[in-house]
Amino acid sequence: MKLYYHPASTTSRPLVMFIEDNAIPAELQVVDLFSGEHMGEAFSAVNPNCLVPVLEDGDFRLTESSAILKYLADSIDSPAYPKGLKQRAKVNEMMDWINTQLNRDLGYGTVYVQVFPHHKRPTDEAQRATVAWGQERAKRWMTILDRHLLGPDKPYLCGDSLTIADYYGASFVHLAEVVGSDLADYPNVRRWLDRMKTRPTWETVYAAINGFAQQLPRGQLASV
Known about the structure:
4 strands; 4-stranded mixed β-sheet
């Protein structure tokens, strides 16, 4: 198997961490997003979306992070993606919620629009409005995650055991820290994310994005 990825990519990190945690024999090929390699002819032939990650397994190809993570888990019969109908449905539900609710407003509406030039809006007024809208809604999703989806008792997103939803969700929630949040308003989220940070591969997998975050103007970005 080959995974095309970038270490600063939010959707790549869950895959790399799962691969490393489980010693899955996969070739990791960096696609340099910052130089625009993903927009070139060679990579667009691999993925016409011009996005990472992409997984190739022989002549089989997947181009969506959530689907790739599920495929990887099934390929090694991992308990992190439970086989029981209801248990698996809860993992799928949590991953869908992260992707369609939290990521939309925290990732694209609050973080990316501030830190990546190609996401910034064409006018200052549009930029301010976009960030204000995203920030308000992201805070709501983070509160729901803190009080209802996690709560004070659950060690992991889907209960007592680590699942691929935790790998997936940690990368998106960590974006709040990238723009300076200490997660003080979300103690259950912080407790859960701190647990994920104790995994032996965390520091290596998250080194690139943490280094990028250190270069951002601290205290000047809208956060949650």
